[in-house]
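Comment thread on ticket #2218

A.B. wrote:
> Attaching the input chain for the structure job we discussed in standup.
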Amino acid sequence: MKAFIEKLRDREDLHSSDVSYAVSMLLSEQTPREEKAAFLTALHEKGETAEEITAFVQQLIDRSVDPMIDPKRLPGPLLDVCGTGGAGLGLFNVSTTIMFMLAAGGAVVVKHGNRGVTSASGSADVLEALGVRINCEPDELMKGLSEMGLAFIFARQYHPAFRMIAEIREQLAYAKTRTIFNLLGPLLNPARPPRQLIGVYEARLTTVFAEVLRRLKRERAWVVHGSTDGGAGMDNISISGATTLAELENGKVTSAVLDTRWLGVTGASVAELRGGDATENAATLLGILGGELQGPKRDLALVNAAGGFVVSGLVHDLGDGIALARETIESGRAMQKLRALQQLSA
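C.D. wrote:
> Ran it. Output below, let me know if you need it in another format.
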């Protein structure tokens, strides 16, 4: 491990074989904790390459529990929607909100998520606050996907190897030291969904992630990073400013900039989009799906669901996606998806 640390400090990239050995060392009880921290810190300070990230994903997914999900047996295109977090804006749980809208519009959503570490409410926290059981076995996941187009894969349950590094990850997170594990969450869905909408906390990561997804042989993906009214970034499609987009389609990666204000969406400040703890964010989610909550938070959910519909292939463009997302709320179908998932958990 010390040799890898020196290599990284010399700004040399790791090869996939290096990563294979490094992951084994990270997951070993015999490796000193300070060496694990030094390795993760040095890798991040150098800057993780697409090859390094891909190798980490492959190593860790190979150690995950296989949920045994066959996309060919499902009633629609299989999709995950997830963000890296790390933007520090304290928004409500956008990707968790839109999973119900996407399922109501014909996608099959296999949401991968975890509890919050640096945020007040992770996807697992808000779903639990809504009465959804988060620790489902593979047969229960397949039932949810087949019958209602929805399932939640709890990262801690399906990645048992992470227990070996949980403590060091939390220590580094609380020290506000980013590592490659701040990047990996959206890439580690053990169901290997062929389509993904991923939000990242830095604009430069959009093309890096798209290249990683190309190497992982995903069919189609959007990787987005939104800008805010104050110049900060968010791991969502933004309604506060422009959004940097990298798209993977047909094995090719292209980049673009989009601005939802071009589509008539009213701009909003970050202050209008902030959430709170799991209870508060659950109330926001219910308000959006139930149609009672209007305004910026609903608009943010609409445009991100629209991106998911485009990636799913269910609509041609973002404008059509916004219209479909709005209709899933107004028809009551989005709320029906949540109620069905709650009933399955009862």
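A.B. wrote:
> Thanks. Noting for the ticket: The chain has a mean pLDDT of 94.
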